[in-house]
Amino acid sequence: MNRHFEYRHVVGFEETNLVGNVYYVNYLRWQGRCREMFLKDRAPEILADLQDDLKLFTLRVDCEFFAELALFDELSIRMRLVDLAQTQIEFGFDYVRLDDGSETLVARGAQRIACMRGPNTRTAPSRVPDALVEALAPYTAVRA
Fold it and tell me: pTM for the full model?
């Protein structure tokens, strides 16, 4: 069983094209939003660190699409921890459409980030903060 952090979302007009399909770039935005809500809900002490000198640099992001989403679709973006290294974290994301009690996997994505510290002109890799490591522990991906 996978453990995941869930962010719920309803597709709005601004996220669709003229025929009502979701623009692909929104899937990547939702990854970022899910990660932000995780920090807010599960690791709020990291927010002060981010206002100080911690930076979370996105190194890689991807998304594979299985089905389309449309206006007012309700979805669950489910984030899990895939890899935790000394200075980097990789998350996996499942995009699940919620339809009257049923669920449909519509996309799957990933994101790798690096923890950095220092002024913008001289940032350097930094260990993943202990508070973040602790907050991520329950969300380790378990693959069969």
Answer: 0.91
